[in-house]
Amino acid sequence: METSGSGLTAQRLRMDIISNNIANADTTRSGNVDGNGVPLPYRREFPVFTAVDFNQFLQSADSNTAGSAIPGVRVTAIAEDSSPFPTVYNPGHPDANAQGYVQMPNVNTAQEMVDMIDASRAYEANISALDASKAMCTHALDIGK
Fold it and tell me: E strands, 15-71, where?
């Protein structure tokens, strides 16, 4: 159950990050600046998952850090995509350079939607696994009656 719970937590965070990426797909000022003081657009983010295997869980349960390693998955970082910013010719935009080009966020909305569907399906799979675990526990308790 804890493994499915960790998967639910990780996929929920992944969906939140994807939603944030989509919401900022047109944000040309993120608050960060380059070396010349020019405002940078929003940079796409993504979660970095790390597997916590059952052996790590048992080792932490035997030590004084019991419960610190739940078997399953955990998010160890939220990384930024280092791909280049696309440029769009829009001389009327307030963030356009001298040639009339604007740096746009490196967010591909179609790819983000595919990632959202993938995260949603993974979330549903974890719910199904959790439901199956609960059903097995219920049936095991019924055996003792």
Answer: 45-52
Is there a single domain that holds both residue 123 and residue 97? no
Q: How far apart are the first and last CA of the chain?
A: 23
- Domain extent at residue 89: 28-42+83-106
Question: Structural domain tally of the chain?
Answer: 2
Specify whether 61 is located in the same domain as 91: no
pLDDT tens, per residue, the chain with 145 residues = 788 888 888 999 999 999 999 999 999 988 777 777 777 899 999 999 988 876 655 565 555 555 556 678 888 999 999 999 999 999 999 888 889 999 999 999 999 999 999 999 999 998 898 888 888 888 888 887 7
